[in-house]
Amino acid sequence: MPSKAHWKFAVKVFFLSIGFNVIISFEPWYVGLLFKGSVRQKTDDRLSVSGTEYPEGELLWCTLSDRSWGRVCKFRNLCYMHINGEFALFHGNTAKTGHEQDAQLLGNRLIKDIVSLTSALGAEFPFNLAHISIDNIVPGKLKYFNYRSGSYHLFRAFNVGNTAHAIHDDLLPVFYTLSRYDNLTEEPTSTLIYWRELSLNKLMGFYQLFSQGEPISQNDLTFEPEESLTCFQDIIVGLSTETLWYQWGLPGFEPEGALKGSNATSSHIAKFTGYVRKRMGLPLRCPIANDYGIIFIRKKTRLILNEEKLSEVLSKTLQLEMRELSLEKNTFKEIIKTVSCAKVLVGMHGAMMIFPIFLPPSSFVLELHPYAINPRNFTPYKTAVELSGMDIEYRAWRNMNRSNTVTHPTEALHRGGISHLSKEEQERITNLTEIRPHQCCQHPEVQFRLYQDTLIDIPSVVNILTNTQFYKNRNGKFST
Ligand SMILES: *[C@@H]1O[C@H](CO)[C@@H](O)[C@H](O)[C@H]1NC(C)=O
Ligand SMILES: *[C@@H]1O[C@H](CO)[C@@H](O)[C@H](O)[C@H]1NC(C)=O
Ligand SMILES: *[C@@H]1O[C@H](CO)[C@@H](O)[C@H](O)[C@H]1NC(C)=O
Ligand SMILES: *[C@@H]1O[C@H](CO)[C@@H](O)[C@H](O)[C@H]1NC(C)=O
Hints:
With about 475 residues, the protein is an alpha/beta fold. The protein folds into two domains: about 60-240, no CATH class; about 255-480, no CATH class. It has eleven helices and 23 strands. A hairpin with a 2-residue loop joins strand 1 (about 5-15) and strand 2 (about 20-25). The site of one 2-acetamido-2-deoxy-beta-D-glucopyranose has 4 residues, from helix 8.
């Protein structure tokens, strides 16, 4: 049976020089997880003010009623007002409709935080919506009109340029949201609007896999005249949090770690990786004679100083060919193609270590950590490959020997520099043998240690390898 619920938004608005202070409520009804509820009854989908026509807006449904993080809503004719950077739904003359709720819907109001546009816990970027009676439009303020027909998905990319963040925070949630609410299966069904001023650069191709048209940024809308209105015909707003497994330790939350109450499983990952491979035109099966491992190489920072030696020893110990991949030299397609059929993946802690989610079952991952970095406090990739059902063996190695590390105190802060700090603070940081669990972002002591180069202690790596189930299975195979 559908149950009733009320949303009440206390709202204060000053918009287009008219201010109101009102409470609105509407009664959605539940359909499973979804509730459907029109802000108002649809009468005609064109509204007119002194000759200009406005599309009548509708809120079709929203999920969840208790929090905006993870809520997803669908709108018809959602408009972006260039003059003030707000989104709006337009409704008609209240007197004409005689709709009961309209008694309270006098004038304009801004409904705040309907949806969080980012999926990152603590970075909840609120989606606010002005609900505007066309009676209150000041003639001439909104006169140029771009109508974009078709389906759209609006969210905010959280950490632009970082592959791991793109996949965990944006693309898995986009994929899952659109699969669930837009019937996405094999082909994109909507055009993505990623609501950042930054360009996605190298990652654009990745987002493109999920987008019907070229993904739209906030910048793409800034060249219109101020008095413009851009309206989207059918638009899903927000990201499901169903696939998240990590929280990044944003201020006000615990230090970074596995997300409490995560519902992500291997089946979310498998559907996503399957979709990506198919869209990239990669073969669905691996060649039979594939027996190789991968070593991920970072070319600029956080280097492995003896990578050749490490690769050689890995190859000898595990009895397979080791291939080298890097974000600098290889395309995403090459990386995903190679990882999808690999048996082993070894790399330094960093964004590339998101790619193990593409590994086949029964594979093995070794993540390396620089000096003073406790692997237990940096677990986005461990958590991913250990999601329920993943069937990937994971081990962490950390450098315990201070003489095997090379620090970069004179670099910029984001590359581990500390020379901008007082002598005493520099000394305190240099003295630390382990950095404590931390809140996000760019703490000098965290950056200093994360951006070290490392000479890997080979015997300790071999010791880890020979104690894995993976090794034992292979060794059994090769010695019989
Ligand atoms: C998705 O598919 C279902 C069942 O085929 C259909 O009822 C629904 O309208 C579709 N939704 C969208 C957004 O296309
Ligand atoms: C996981 O599912 C439960 C039950 O549906 C829900 O309450 C919870 O919010 C979900 N967790 C996340 C992170 O979405
Ligand atoms: C640390 O590394 C140095 C240089 O590589 C080496 O001489 C030393 O024996 C190592 N110390 C330990 C405790 O392994
Ligand atoms: C750093 O360690 C050295 C040697 O143990 C000690 O003399 C010094 O006081 C320490 N500095 C700070 C700021 O803790």
